[in-house]
Amino acid sequence: MNTQQRKLIAAMSLCTGILVAISGAAQASLIDRGGGLIYDTDLNITWLADASYAATSGDVADVFMNWTPANTWATNLSYYDSVRNVTYDDWRLPTTLLSDPSCSIQNVPDYGYNCTGSELGHLFYSELGGAAGQSIVTTHNANYNLFSNVISNVSWSNSYDSSTAWFFHTGLGYQTAYSKTKIGFAWAVRPGDVAAAASTVPVPAAAWLFGSGLLGLIGMARRKAA
Q: Residue 96's pLDDT is what?
């Protein structure tokens, strides 16, 4: 094997590795975008990596609060993304479906364990590997390490009616409506992917680009061999 052939094989291996990395990134459910932001590719939403950011940021005095101040905090949150130098102000509490066929108790509304139709339920069961009746702090998969300050307690969701709001208990994997006067913590989420604007080359185009480069290397090697 001559020098040109070795260079060609090395280039082919590099391109293959890059394409595999691109494919893996596209298939991942949760992606760490940096800047304290985690993108959920399944639901096309972005979570704050710090589940207790309301308190750790100093925005509120106590991580546990009634639904009204929790909702006010989330909707008024202005978060600076140091990686992309952008400030986002379209945050909210997670949403819960009124009708969710995945819930263990089918009623009006549906509630109970194994509810994966809500954003918090999907995160708990489908992406963090949570189990019904167990705390996410003790039972989880590797995705759990993408987040910090996760609390094993009630996490507020959207309003159900004038007096109650949805919640998801991360200590039990249980979802139902709860009086707004009770206390829980607020885990903020926003729509879309923070990296969307910065991504200028889609995966198919990137694959074409690497393929073109590989063909160019092959052509150069053949010309030099000739």
A: 96
The length of the chain in residues reads 226
Q: How many helices (H) does the chain have, and how many strands (E)?
A: 5, 10
User: What are the tens digits of pLDDT across the range 37-72?
Assistant: 999 999 999 999 999 999 999 999 999 999 999 999
Which class for 207: exposed (0-12), middle (13-18), buried (19 or more C-beta within 10 A)? middle
pTM (two decimals): 0.77
The pair of three-digit structure tokens given for residue 209, joined into one six-digit string? 């680009």
Q: Is the dihedral of CA 61, 66, 72, 74 positive or negative?
A: positive
Instruction: Locate the domains of the chain by residue range.
Output: 3-24+201-225, 35-191
Rounded (5°) CA angle 210-214-217? 140
Query: CA–CA separation, 51 vs 58, rounded Å?
Result: 13
